[in-house]
Amino acid sequence: GVLHEDLRLLLDTHLPAKRRKVVLGVADAKLGAAVLEELGCPCQSGGVVAEILRGIRLHFHALVKGLTAQSASKAQLGLGHSYSRAKVKFNVNRVDNMIIQSISLLDQLDKDINTFSMRVREWYGYHFPELIKIVGDNATYCRLAKFIGNRKALAEESLAGLEEIVMDSAKAQAILEASRSSMGMDISPIDLINIESFSSRVISLSEYRRGLQEYLRSKMSQVAPSLSALIGEVVGARLISHAGSLTNLAKYPASTVQILGAEKALFRALKTRGNTPKYGLIFHSTFIGRAAAKNKGRISRYLANKCTIASRIDCFSEVPTSVFGDKLREQVEERLAFYETGEPPRKNLDVMKEAMVEASEVVAEVRRKQEKKEKKKKKREKRRLEALAAAEELEDSVLEENETEPKKKKKKKKEQELEAPSEPEENGLEEEEEEEPLPKKKRKLEAETVQLDKKKKKKKVKEVED
């Protein structure tokens, strides 16, 4: 494009004529170094270059012919949108946002189910108070409240249904005996209907929670398989949710991961100069519960270290596998055994070498399966396109036949009119054969032969007359 006069003067003053063709101006020094290394073109990055680029951006609509300020602003807006889309674009199977939402929903469902179950216990407890002591599980209590209804209607025939819900014959017998000698008040049918409908809502919520937990488990195995193999799906999802994303968790040091979730206790300890917390969310892991009281701090520190390694492997590996998580879990188990029995654990270098070998085999197998899937997908797509093309050809041929049918009839009539006076002595069978539809080329040849015969006859008649 044509440069503005001020920019041309600026270029002439700062860049010699000999080097003007090879010197590039870039705003970033790292980019200039990369261009120089790859292409061998020297690059300048400094205050002058930044001013030149700023001036070019400011007067870009004046420098380029046919570009207005409005169209330049639209182009900038479109470029900004496309850049944002490119930055946001990711693999849909490795989305950690869904994990954050599902673990938050899971925690909320736990609170809601607990609250609603307590409401059912209080409500149905007026009628059958002894059931609360026999059954402790909330979901089971709601199922029993829905199944029993009026306790006076409970008989020996209902024992099989009670056993199916409680999964214990002794408890089912105890419920049946308690219903016969209960101290609860009588209840009206409309109250029972309300209690049963509310119990069914609580049961459906608990079933949905179970399905959500399965979904979270499958999602964690796709997004962070090593972390979930090391510390469990729920604790790993809570760590990702608290950090904000898997990338943020991978950037944290082990000391931050150790006390993640105990920020309030940490700042209180720093303010009062007390003892800082030893663990945060990772306390819910089984390893810390199994360790002795004196070893809880040490095992939490070791576990946080392994969690950071697992999260970084999950975040930055192309094909996520649970091999590293399993090996890291074995290391934590060995460290626990070392604290209890004194048996020395394996070195980290040896364990990681074994994990690398196994992971390479797993990755090769996964890629092989992906290639097979892609090939099958391409074959299916090819067959679909071929089928569509064949269908289109059939439609076109049908349309052509429909269009040519009236033309054929007209040609037949003309041929019959031409042949009728010239060939009066022909049999009826031959006429019937001519009525059958003939191919296009044959019809043309027959018409041409008829015309030639007519011409020859006319020549003969003229010669006889002469």
TrEMBL record:
Residue ranges of the region described as Disordered: 390-466
Superkingdom of the organism of origin: Eukaryota
Gene3D superfamilies per UniProt: 1.10.287.4070, Nop domain
GO MF annotation list: snoRNA binding
Acidic residues biased stretches: 392-403, 418-436
Subcellular location: Nucleus, Nucleolus
Family the entry assigns: Belongs to the NOP5/NOP56 family.
PANTHER family: NUCLEOLAR PROTEIN 5 NUCLEOLAR PROTEIN NOP5 NOP58 (PTHR10894), NUCLEOLAR PROTEIN 56 (PTHR10894:SF0)
Role, per record: Involved in the early to middle stages of 60S ribosomal subunit biogenesis. Required for the biogenesis of box C/D snoRNAs such U3, U8 and U14 snoRNAs. Part of the small subunit (SSU) processome, first precursor of the small eukaryotic ribosomal subunit. During the assembly of the SSU processome in the nucleolus, many ribosome biogenesis factors, an RNA chaperone and ribosomal proteins associate with the nascent pre-rRNA and work in concert to generate RNA folding, modifications, rearrangements and cleavage as well as targeted degradation of pre-ribosomal RNA by the RNA exosome.
Protein name (Swiss-Prot/TrEMBL): Nucleolar protein 56
Organism: Eudromia elegans (Elegant crested-tinamou)
Gene assigned in the entry: Nop56
